[in-house]
Write a structure and sequence with these properties.
Among the domains are: about 80 residues, Immunoglobulin-like, CATH 2.60.40.10; about 120 residues, Nuclear Transport Factor 2, Chain: A (Roll), CATH 3.10.450; about 80 residues, no CATH class; about 40 residues, no CATH class; about 130 residues, Cathepsin B, Chain A (Alpha-Beta Complex). Helix content is about 10%, strand content about 45%. It contains nine helices and 59 strands. The strands form 13 sheets. Strands 53, 54, 55, 56, 57, 58 and 59 form a seven-stranded antiparallel sheet that branches. A six-stranded mixed sheet has the order 1-46-22-21-20-19, with no helix packed on it. It has a five-stranded mixed sheet with strand order 5-11-10-7-8, with no helix packed on it. β21 and β22 form a beta hairpin.
C-alpha cells in the first residue's frame, strides 16, 4: 500500500474521568473562549442471540457507502424475525425504517417504515434472506429533532451454523482465563507452535503458554460490560470478537486500567467446538499519574509494538499517542497534558469505548505545538456520528486544542482510517492544509478558505510522501510513463524545486529517506511488460537528492533495472528486474542508504521485563527529568466557530481488495494475490470493493474437481498461455480469439474482465494450496510456467493438483510441490476470476 500519514491500527479507548484520577489536575486559562467536547448522544441498536446481547451498532448521521460498512454480520438462527433493541437516547424516536439490500448495495429487496417506535422493534425479513447468502440490513432512525441516524449490518439465515453453541464455547474459554482453578483445562485447546515472547501478555494467541492465557497472575477484574460482536459466520465457523476493560494491580500501590480485545474463530462440528484461531490483546490506558514516570522516562506499561511519538528540537517536550489519546509532556515545566481523547469517563457507556478511529501525529515544532489527525468514526462532539478526518492543532503555550479542518467521508471508519487520505499535512507556518485525494494535491489556505490545485490526475506510482508527511515528490509534467520532470516540495515551508530528466528519458519518484528524495531515471525505449502482461518502467539509475537540492548518492548497475523502492529504518530496498526476451523478470533485491549519519535520538521506544507485568514499554529518555511528579493538565478545545469542512467528490474505489481478520480490517491491497497472503496469515477473508468474496481461510472443500474439463491443445498461432485463456473462456460459453486480443495489446486481466462474466483477479504470489479455494468455487486458475507458457488448474485434493497442459494435450495429476516448481518459471504468476 501507499505510504501515508494515516495508517490502519485500531483498539478500544477510554480513561477515568479527570476528576477521579490521582494527581494534580489543572485547567489553565486562555484569553480565547474554550469549551469541553459534548457527550455521545446518538442511540445504539443491538440484537439478541439467545442470552447474548450482540452486535451493538453505532449510528451514522450520513447515509454511508453500503459496500464499505462490513464490520459485523447478524446470523439468524431461528425464524425470520429480528428484534432490534434501541438504547441510549432519552428523546422520542419518530420513525424506524429498515431496508434489505444486496451486498453491493445496488438492489433494494424490501423496505418498511414503523411509526410507533418502542425500545424494541421487530424486523420482518420474510424470504429476503436464505441460508448462507449475506444481505445488508440498513436501518434509519428519525429522531424527535428531525435528524436521521443510519445503522448497517450484514445479515444472513444461519439455521445450521450452530451460532449459539459457538458463542457458548467462546464464553466458556473467556471465563476460564479469569479462573486460576479452571484455566489449566484450556491446555488441550492450545497449539504447540513457537511462542515469540513468553514474558508478554500484551498479545496472547494459541501459541502462548497457559500462564499467559491466564493473565500471568495479574488477577484482572472486568470493568463494565463485555461487548460481543459476530464478525463472520458460515456453516464451518463463526468469528466472535469481544471488547471490554479490566483493572489490575499495578506497580507499588497503583491500579491500572486496560482496554482488552479478544477474538475467537470457533468451529462446531459433530457436536463439539474447537478453536481455529484466538488472539487477545491488552493495552494499558495511560493516566499521567506519578507511577507513569521514572528516572528513565515515561512508563507506558503493557502496550503495543508501535507508539507514535515526536520530540521537539530542544528535546524537552514529547508528544505521544497511547490508546487513541494524545498526550504532551513538557519536562521543562514539569507538566503532562491530556491533549485529546474521545473518552468522557462514562465507563458503562460503550459509545465512549468505540475504537473505530485512530490518531496519528503529523508534526511538532520547537515550542511543543503539535498537529495531529483524528481519522475514522467520530464518537462524540460536533462531528458525532460522522466519518472523516479532523486536523487538530495543539497550542502548547496558550494551552488549547483547535480543530483546523474536517474532511468527511461516506466510507466506514475502518476504511477511512486506512485509506481515506493519501496525504494530510498542516503547516502552522503558512496556516495551510495540504491534502491528496484521488491523485489531486490540494493546498487549502485556512485563513481565506481558498482551495488551490497544485497538481492533478496523478496515478499511483507518480508521487511519494515522506514518513512524517513533511515532504512530497511528484511527476509534474505528464503520465507515469512519460514524465520528464519531478517536483519536490517541503510542505512545512512551501518551498519546492524541480528535477528534470534528459531527452528520451523519464523520471519517477520512489521513496524518501530521512527527508531526502529517492527517485529513478529510465529510458522510454526500455519500457515493457512483465510475465503478467503488466507494464514495467525499468529505471537504469537511482539517485538520492538532499533537502539542499544536491545529489548525494547514485546507484546504477549493468543488466538490471529498478522498478520500485521502499524505506524502512532508513534502509532503502530496491526491487529489481532483468530483461528476458521481450519481458522483464524479477531478480534479487538490493539495499542502499543515503550515507547520512543519523544522530542517536534522546527518546526511543524500549521494552523491558517488569516483575509484576512481564514485558512492558517505556519512552526511554536519556534526558529524563529528575522530577517524576508532573502536574496533570486537561486541555479544552478552542471555540472559534465551526472548523472548515472540506468536501471532495470521491469516486468509488475499483480494483481494491479488503482483508478482514481477527476482528478488524487488516489492510487494503491492489492485487488479490497480496491480499490472500495477508488473509492467510491472519486466518481471515478477502473481499472486493463490491463485497464479492475472493478468498477465505478454513472454509473450502477438502477435494474438488471442476466438471466437464477435458484435455485440449495449443492451436496454430497461439501460445500455451493463450490456449489456456481461450479454453477457460470456452467453459463459460465464450468463443474468443485470445491471440488476436493479446496482439491488440490486451492483457490477461483485460480479457478475463471483458469475457469471464466475473471479476479478474491477479493471484500472483499465492501458494498453490491457497489457490485451491478459487478452484473449489468452480473457476479454473491459469498457472504461468514461463513468459508465455501456462497450464490450467482444475482440481485438487489434500496432496495433489489436477491440471490441463495444452502443450502435451494431457490432463495429469501431480503433487502440489511439482506445480509450485513449474510456476517458478514465472515467479509464481497466476490468474483467475471470481463470480
Amino acid at each position: 500500500m501507499k505510504k501515508k500519514i494515516i495508517i490502519g491500527s485500531v483498539a478500544a479507548v477510554i480513561v477515568i474521568a479527570a476528576a477521579i484520577i490521582l494527581g494534580i489536575i489543572l485547567n489553565r486559562g486562555t484569553s480565547d473562549k474554550t469549551e469541553e467536547m459534548g457527550g455521545a448522544t446518538l442511540p445504539i441498536v443491538s440484537f439478541q442471540e439467545g442470552e447474548y446481547k450482540i452486535n451493538s451498532l453505532y449510528g451514522y448521521t450520513d447515509s454511508m457507502e453500503i459496500t464499505s460498512v462490513r464490520d459485523m454480520v447478524l446470523p439468524i438462527s431461528v425464524g425470520t424475525t429480528i428484534k432490534a433493541d434501541i438504547q441510549g437516547y432519552s428523546g422520542k424516536i419518530k420513525s424506524f425504517t429498515y431496508e434489505i439490500c444486496t451486498l453491493d448495495g445496488k438492489e433494494s429487496i424490501k423496505q418498511e417504515t414503523i411509526k410507533k417506535v418502542k425500545d424494541t422493534v421487530n424486523i420482518e425479513l420474510g424470504d429476503t434472506v436464505s441460508d448462507g447468502e449475506e444481505k445488508v440490513l440498513k436501518m434509519k432512525l428519525t429522531l424527535d429533532n428531525g435528524q436521521d441516524v443510519y445503522y448497517y449490518t450484514r445479515v444472513l439465515k444461519a439455521t445450521e451454523f450452530h451460532v449459539q453453541q459457538c458463542l457458548e464455547f467462546a464464553d466458556d474459554f473467556h471465563k476460564k482465563t479469569f479462573d486460576a482453578d479452571q484455566v489449566n483445562a484450556l491446555k488441550p485447546r492450545l497449539e504447540r507452535g513457537s511462542n515469540p515472547n513468553p514474558s508478554s501478555i500484551q498479545k496472547v494467541t494459541l501459541n502462548s503458554d497457559i500462564k499467559q492465557i491466564g493473565w500471568s497472575g495479574l488477577n484482572p477484574e472486568i470493568v463494565g460490560d463485555v461487548v460481543w460482536q459476530i464478525k463472520e459466520s458460515t456453516e464451518t465457523y463463526t468469528s466472535i470478537y469481544l471488547k471490554y476493560q479490566v483493572k489490575c494491580k499495578g506497580e507499588g500501590d497503583s491500579e491500572d486500567l486496560y482496554n482488552v480485545t479478544e477474538f475467537f474463530k470457533v468451529r462446531f462440528l459433530k457436536g463439539k467446538g474447537s478453536l481455529e484461531d484466538y488472539e487477545r490483546t491488552m493495552n494499558e490506558v495511560f493516566s499521567g499519574d506519578e507511577s507513569d514516570f521514572s528516572a528513565k522516562g515515561v512508563e507506558l506499561g503493557i502496550a503495543g509494538e508501535e507508539i507514535p511519538y515526536m520530540v521537539n528540537e530542544k528535546e524537552n517536550i514529547i508528544s505521544f499517542v497511547q490508546e487513541r489519546e494524545v498526550w504532551n509532556y513538557n519536562k521543562e515545566k514539569n507538566e503532562i497534558s491530556l491533549v485529546f481523547s474521545f473518552a468522557d469517563g462514562e465507563e458503562d457507556d460503550i459509545r465512549s469505548r468505540n475504537d473505530n478511529h485512530e490518531i496519528e501525529l503529523v508534526s511538532m515544532d520547537n515550542k511543543g505545538n503539535t498537529t495531529f489527525v483524528v481519522c475514522g468514526y467520530m464518537n462524540r462532539g460536533m462531528h458525532e456520528g460522522k466519518v472523516g478526518a479532523g486536523i487538530y492543532y495543539f497550542n502548547s503555550e496558550k494551552n488549547y486544542v483547535e480543530e483546523k479542518a474536517f474532511i468527511p467521508s461516506e466510507k466506514s471508519g475502518e476504511i477511512a482510517a486506512e485509506d481515506l487520505i493519501q496525504l494530510a499535512y498542516y503547516s502552522e507556518e503558512e496556516n495551510k492544509l495540504y491534502a491528496m485525494f484521488e491523485g489531486t494535491l490540494y493546498e487549502i489556505n485556512l485563513e481565506t478558505q481558498k482551495r488551490s490545485v497544485l497538481v492533478k490526475n496523478l496515478e499511483e506510482g507518480q508521487y511519494v510522501v515522506s514518513n512524517d508527511g513533511k515532504y512530497i515528490a511528484y511527476q509534474s509534467d505528464g503520465k507515469l510513463t512519460e514524465a520528464t520532470e519531478m517536483t519536490i516540495q517541503n510542505l512545512q515551508t512551501g518551498k519546492k524545486y524541480k528535477v528534470k530528466a534528459e531527452k528520451g528519458e523519464v523520471i519517477r519518484p520512489l521513496t524518501f529517506v530521512m527527508g531526502d528524495a529517492v527517485y529513478g531515471i529510465g529510458k522510454k525505449e526500455d519500457i515493457g511488460k512483465n510475465v503478467s502482461g503488466n507494464q514495467i518502467i525499468p529505471l537504469y539509475k537511482v539517485e538520492i537528492r538532499n533537502q539542499k537540492n544536491k545529489v548525494v548518492k547514485t546507484y546504477q548497475e549493468d543488466q538490471s533495472y529498478v522498478v520500485s523502492a521502499n524505506t524502512e529504518h532508513n534502509m532503502i530496498t530496491l526491487e529489481r528486474v532483468q530483461k528476458s526476451g521481450d519481458t522483464y523478470a524479477g531478480i534479487t533485491q538490493h539495499y542502499i542508504t543515503n550515507n547520512k549519519e543519523q544522530e542517536e535520538p534522546s527518546v526511543t521506544v524500549e521494552t523491558y521485563t517488569s516483575e509484576t507485568k512481564g514485558t512492558v514499554t517505556r519512552l526511554e529518555d536519556k534526558k529524563a527529568s529528575s522530577e517524576t511528579k508532573p502536574k496533570r493538565l486537561v486541555q479544552k478545545q478552542l471555540a472559534k466557530g465551526k472548523p472548515i469542512v472540506i468536501e471532495f467528490n470521491l469516486a468509488d474505489e475499483e480494483n481494491c481488495y479488503y482483508v478482514y481478520g481477527r476482528g478488524k480490517l487488516q489492510g487494503i491491497y491492489k492485487t488479490a494475490g497480496a491480499a490472500i497472503l495477508k488473509a492467510d496469515e491472519v486466518r481471515g477473508v478477502v473481499v472486493t470493493s463490491h463485497q464479492t468474496k475472493v478468498w477465505e481461510r478454513g472454509n473450502r472443500q477438502l477435494r474438488y474437481n471442476i466438471e466437464n474439463t477435458s484435455a485440449f491443445s495449443v492451436q496454430q498461432g497461439e501460445t500455451s498461455l493463450q490456449a489456456c485463456l481461450r479454453q477457460l473462456l470456452e467453459y463459460k460459453g465464450k468463443k474468443v480469439n485470445v491471440a488476436k486480443e493479446m496482439q491488440d495489446g490486451k492483457s490477461v486481466m483485460d480479457i478475463l474482465n471483458k469475457y469471464s462474466g466475473g471479476e479478474a483477479v491477479d493471484l500472483s504470489g499465492c501458494t498453490v494450496e491457497q489457490l485451491c479455494y478459487i478452484i473449489g468455487k468452480g473457476t479454473p486458475v491459469i498457472a504461468m510456467t514461463g513468459t508465455d507458457s501456462a497450464i490450467l488448474l482444475v482440481g485438487y485434493d489434500d496432496k495433489m493438483i489436477t491440471y490441463l497442459n495444452p502443450s502435451t494435450s494431457k490432463k495429469p495429476t501431480e503433487a502440489i510441490s511439482v506445480i509450485e516448481n513449474m510456476a517458478k518459471g514465472s515467479q509464481g504468476t497466476f490468474f483467475g476470476y471470481v463470480k
